[in-house]
Amino acid sequence: MQHNVVINLLFSIFNPKHVFVSLLLLGPGWQSPAADYPWEKGPGFRRAKLLPVGAGKEGFTLLPPEQTGIVFTNALSEQRTLASEILPFGSGVAAGDVDGDGLCDLYFCALKTGNRLYRNLGNWKFEDITEKAGVGCTNLDATGAALVDIDGDGTLDLIVNSLGGGTHIFFNDGKGRFTESKEILNAGLGGMSLAIADYDGDGWLDLYVANYRVNSAADSDVRVSLRTVAGKLVVASINNKPLTDPEWTNRFHFQITEDGSGTVKFAKEELGESDALFRNLGKGHFKQVPWTGGAFLDEDGKPTTMGSPTCMSVMTSKPLTGSGSMTGTVGSGRLIGWRFDKFHFLRWE
Ligand SMILES: [Ca+2]
Ligand SMILES: [Ca+2]
Ligand SMILES: [Ca+2]
Q1: What's the pLDDT band for 58 if we cut at 50, 70, 90?
Q2: pTM for the full predicted model
């Protein structure tokens, strides 16, 4: 017998008018209302241990696509796989009730083969409503998505990140039909993960986009020329272009060492693109916040003078209130984080 599975996340802490995100998955054998659980109250939350019923095995049961109707595959051709170090990272999924029927729907991102939105019909069956929802994004290398109410009308809107195609916003009419915003954010950058939080406490959810790269130097030949300046070897050009060329600006760290016997060791580290924070000016209209403009403070509480890190993934805790924290992983796997407290991000590491 299959266990009941209940996951219920409800964030409506800060301002119910502007903030509503819900994710609700109910198993077929759902019987016990939430009121029956022994809730333990804490500051701003309550929690309860789930009590599985039935005699089956514990854990998850894999449901075949023939049963669920979810036949989505994020296909990447061999040619595109070989041509890019970035595309094989794959794409993300967003979950939320887009049509307000109480059942959690699923949105899958794809790499120029069309994103898909599946409406939950109940009993673990789904229907593909991508076309009538208007969220296919067939021209995007889509990497990540979020379902969140960014215009404050109580419906879950859709944010889709992409490699090189910008970050796209779709407003939900409440019935699972979406209209794309004319504003495309993060144009031309390698958007990966994204995080949502009202970082300045004005009641509107803001957006942080973790950028990596659209392409890697390893995807093509990169020829570095050296020259001697004041007795030291330095990089003169890359592919016959100076280091000041926009393609190479802030892109590499070089390490050149000579041991005195004529042996030269050369190493290069490729850097990622800066992440981006977008403040919601109201009703889902965003403006990018400069990294060094005072929104981000260093460990001493002073405005940072450093550029943005490059995150592969990013997430927030207590995401919908005016305070909380945000963490991200950089390419080396190092974890960095900021605590945000109304208007400011304070870095910790
Ligand atoms: Ca639904
Ligand atoms: Ca909305
Ligand atoms: Ca805000």
Answers
A1: confident
A2: 0.76
